[in-house]
Design brief:
The structure holds 2 protein chains of 2 kinds. By secondary structure, chain A is mostly helical. Chain A has one domain. Chain A has 21 helices and 2 strands. A two-stranded antiparallel sheet of chain A has the order 1-2. Chain B folds into 2 domains: 188 residues, Bordetella uptake gene, domain 1 (D-Maltodextrin-Binding Protein, domain 2, 3-Layer(aba) Sandwich); 122 residues, D-Maltodextrin-Binding Protein, domain 2 (3-Layer(aba) Sandwich). Helix content of chain B is 43%, strand content 21%. In chain B, strands 1, 2, 3, 4, 5, 6, 7, 8, 9 and 10 form a 10-stranded mixed beta sheet that branches. In chain B, helix 6 links the parallel strand 5 and strand 6. In chain B, helix 2 packs across helix 9 and helix 4 crosses helix 11. The longest helix of chain B has 21 residues. The chains are: A mainly alpha, B alpha/beta. The interface between A and B is large, with 51 and 53 residues. Chain A: This is Tricarboxylic transport membrane protein. Chain A: Keywords: Membrane, Transmembrane, Transmembrane helix. Chain A: It holds the Pfam family TctA.
Amino acid sequence: MYANLIDALPNVLGWANVLSVVVGVIAGICVGALPGLSATMAISVLIPFTFGLDPLVALGMMAGIYNGAMYGGAIPAVLLRIPGTPAAVATSFDGYPMAQSGRGGFALQVAVVSSAIGGIASAIVLMLLAPPLSKVTLLFGPAEIFWVAVFGLSSIVFLLGGDPIKGLISAAFGVTVSVVGSDTITGYERLTFDHLELLDGINIVVLLVGLYALPPAIDLLENADFETVKGKFNLGTGSIWKAIPSMLGFWKTWLRSSVIGVLIGILPGAGGSMAAFLSYNEARRASKNPKAWGNGEPEGVAAAETANNADTASAMIPALTLGVPGTSVAAVMLGGLLIHGLQPGPMLFRDNPDLVFGFMWQFLFGAILLIFLGGSLATNSFAQVLRLPRPMLGAIIIALVFIGVYSINGRMFDVYLTLGFGVVGYFMDKLKFPLPPVVLGLILGSFAEENLRLALRIGRNDWSTLWQNGTSQIIIAVTVSVIVGPLVMRVIRKRKSEDDSAK
Amino acid sequence: MKFKTIIASACLVAAFASNAHAEYPEKKIEIIVGYSAGGGTDVMARTVAPFLERYLVDGATVVVKNMPGASGQIGVTEVANADPDGYTLGTFNLPGMMARTLDRKADYSADSFTYLANVVDDPNVIVTAKDSKLDTMEKLMTAAKADPGAITVGMSSLGGDDHFFLMRLQNGSGAEFTIAPFKGSAPARTAVMGGHVAMGIFNLSEVLGFREELNILGVATEERSSLADDIPTFTEQGVNVVNGSLRGFVAPLNLPEDVRGKLLDAFQKAYDDPEFSKAMLASGNPVKLTLGDDFKALNQEQYDFAKSVWETTPWK
């Protein structure tokens, strides 16, 4: 198998194939950086055009786009507090405060280096461990996936913000939006109000840009002084090579977040956003000064960005070996493979080793290219956007958002829906309702519910089947320890200090 | 003078119009696919398109337009409401498109279309994990009858061909199963491989790549499939069930007879082209052509069965 890996290399290094990855990464960064356009969309737009292309050229472009977009989403998240892709929400927590305090350039550099590291780690795992890790995917049935979703939901505690009631209302809103559509278990239509467009549920991009992109864009219009945003803070970009040494202290976060990203990637259904949220929380929990998090802690950017790139190549593991995509981007990529007559499964590795392993190399190159392309070129040019007058920037963002949302399914309905969510988001912003719980609720709400009900259906309504197998028990144990652990520690510490003061 | 001009131009327009008509197709033909790019139906349409171009007339263009949503319903409704001029065609999936007219409010019916050609017939199969004890149809049916509902069945969705296959199986044998509908066939297949459900119902093309991980107990065709002639049919094993997922092409109702003729002819020629079945098979689409009126009759048969299932055991 490893011989196949080496055999595939020369072909990948052909100029057309290298060029396709380069073009893909650049396109991906641009798509990711534009709010409303996502990697999923870019690749599904690309697929019909690749019909006539050489498979490796097409696959290289897709791998490049995936890697590029996962980083590109960080650019507006840092500069404008508008996550460019769903997976960049967690990046904005610390990235934007950093930009406000004049360290935006450094934040972007942290983001690009972390993205590249996550992507490289993921690609290496894909290359070396794809077949064994696909066995891990098999361990996860509906019951196990339900517990993973519960684990993810438990991190909501840390996202509630200052006012837990408002945070919970936000989360409940997210969950409500997530259950819209036709229910897979019974086929009933929920909250669709007889609109065919709602039967498949609400696309996360529609909700995300409504909540995250429109309110800040409106904000740019509201303060219509024609000063540039840049006037307010200095971006402070230096050479990326000089910046890297100061990041080396993040190695623990890089390692931890890579592992989290890879693991989330191989789980079917969970995606980049969940990886970024989880790794952000774990990094904060491990940090010595958790108070600084949310106020411009570079490590927070590193955690989120490593994880959302670490699940790119690893999401292809179940996709290539089992045909189940780990993320929505991997799902459209499968379509790209199918259109070239490449059907996922063990046969794929045997029949088309040069393509499969070539594709893996392209993931690796895409990740490495990020540092070169994302670091100097893209970061500098995108940062210039901030020189635009505020009203103009706001108007451009709003136009882009609507184009992006329209192009998901090519219908105005989604644009109206985005406008509706924009209104909701605007008032949530003004009334200080936190937005992250909405996203988490949307991602995990119906995901948990569907798998719970499917697990119960399979277990013939016997609730004990939910925790009867080993994998479930391990996940439950981890969840409990993560939630209860800090409480216990606090009690112990308190006792200790009481004992000390008693002496 | 003015009157003459009007007459003259009207004649000219009429002449052009009929002339243009005779030369169908004179502009690009759109095939509306109700799913996003890269899905099985989309790949079928994109594979068929160049062959249609080749066999219609020189220089014909056929483009695929994706209108995803509501499991294909948005796209097929668009086709039903389009002008029957031969420039809007659509993909058509059975039994899904007919089942949607029963379980949802639909703005089309079986009578909204001119049936052109059903191209793909992907038969249903029953699979179990390689290490499962239920490795023959006989053992499976015995287990299902011994404890009704104990056998859990993973499948892609309710109201699709997998579901109808199970209904035919239950009706024919009297056995009872517990349905576990997943979101698509790939997660269901993974659940079978991981032992989370006892068996799975899929289409043959979906499991051919996984023969080392799965036992294929039987295939729901009249005669053994040429794709895997070592797999026995269910009929051979005493369970008389034939069912599958069908994919084809329709046009709006009242398509002009000459246009219809040209299209049917092009489909027949494409089907006879050996390159065609090769390209289709590579993308997981086993071909079997059912043309024109035969396709319409096939659709009616599918509709009647879906209706009988819906009336006796509605799935929602």
